[in-house]
Automatic annotation (TrEMBL):
Family note: Belongs to the EamA transporter family.
Signal peptide: none
Source species, domain of life: Bacteria
InterPro entries, sorted: Diverse_Substrate_Transporter (IPR051258), EamA_dom (IPR000620), EmrE-like (IPR037185)
Domain named EamA: residues: 16-147, 227-328
Protein name (record): EamA domain-containing protein
Keyword Cell membrane attached: yes
Length: 341
């Protein structure tokens, strides 16, 4: 299949939703992967994988990432996205440490669709639909059931601080999604190039000269550039955090296959697919679809780690799937009268 065909398929709303769901499935492998590197502090996983993965994303984006950073239109969205990503990486793993894995994950991931809807409402004036509200409530309820069914040991820190960190993680993840979506929209906007006017009237102007249609890269390249720029900027402080706080975990050779996997698959591949989805669906829809992540994590925990899920956990999975189906199924078309003036 040619690149053009792939981009055309991903350009549909259904293709965007599928890309987000696949990204969420990839992210769902994170918990199982960390099982093979015991003893590594949670924040080290975040700093190393986001830092290393961010450098890879920035390097593979090349000049498109540089254009996203220096471009007057996309620059501010890249900065907002990078700051949000750094805060998210730290806040999310702080929530896991203080509030516990189950509660911290539930509050952080479950609150992100709500925050995304609020961010789009406040910043863009886009009100969420009734179907989105119902789908969010059903999916979040299912995710809570799934997570609590897998409840592990509680955190060792302050519960109020852990819950606060989880809410900060949910907000910054929603802000990151919104900023990346806005940045990709601006970066992929065509910039008209002036067409030279012929100096002689005897030269016919049949159409625009070859190669002068626009002064911008394709939408896919612009999207990769924005994501690469966001992760590249965020990687700088995260790499420093990993080097300073990583300690002995970075010197254990057995940990590095896990670090490399988390950097290349959930981070590079997952967020690249998520960026494809953000080109076609809103941030509020994308964050709702990402609730598929704990479903995959729960299933893998049962199959690989041999955790026990139970009837309650499986019923929660059904609720998440039902909520996502409510969002994904097309609405029946209605016949409308003449448009109001």
């Amino acid at each position: 299949m040619t690149r053009g065909a792939v981009e055309e398929r991903a350009s549909s709303p259904v293709g965007g939703a599928v890309a987000v769901l696949v990204a969420a499935a990839v992210w769902g492998t994170t918990g199982t992967a960390t099982h093979f590197a015991p003893g590594v502090p949670a924040f080290v996983f975040g700093a190393v994988t986001f830092g290393l993965g961010g450098l890879v994303l920035a390097a593979t984006s090349g000049r498109a990432a540089v254009r996203a950073v220096v471009g007057p239109g996309s620059r501010r969205w890249v900065l907002v996205g990078a700051v949000s990503l750094v805060v998210y990486a730290v806040a999310f793993y702080a929530a896991l440490a203080d509030a516990g894995v189950a509660l911290g994950t539930t509050v952080a991931i479950g609150s992100s669709p709500v925050f995304a809807g609020l961010v789009e409402w406040v910043a863009d004036g886009r009100r969420v639909t009734g179907r989105w509200v119902v789908a969010t409530l059903v999916s979040v309820a299912g995710m809570v059931v799934v997570t609590l069914a897998r409840s592990e040991a509680s955190g060792s820190g302050s519960l109020p601080l852990g819950l606060g960190a989880a809410l900060v993680a949910g907000l910054t993840y929603a802000t990151y999604s919104w900023a990346v979506a806005r940045g990709m929209h601006v970066a992929s906007r065509p910039v008209p190039v002036p067409v030279p006017v012929p100096t002689s009237l005897s030269v016919p102007l049949v159409g625009p000269p070859s190669g002068s249609a626009s002064g911008t890269t394709s939408g896919a390249a612009a999207g990769r550039g924005v994501v690469g720029a966001v992760f590249g900027l965020a990687a700088l402080p995260l790499v420093v955090l990993a080097l300073v706080g990583g300690g002995d975990a970075l010197t254990v050779a057995a940990n590095w296959p896990v670090f490399v996997y988390l950097a290349l698959v959930p981070t590079v591949l997952g967020h690249s697919l998520y960026a494809v989805g953000l080109r076609r669906v809103s941030a509020s829809v994308a964050t709702l679809l990402s609730l598929f992540e704990p479903v995959v994590a729960a299933v893998l925990a049962v199959l690989v780690v041999e955790e026990h899920l139970g009837a309650a956990g499986w019923s929660g999975i059904v609720l998440v799937v039902v909520g996502l189906a409510l969002l994904a199924l097309p609405l029946p078309r209605r016949r409308r009268g003449p448009a109001r003036s």
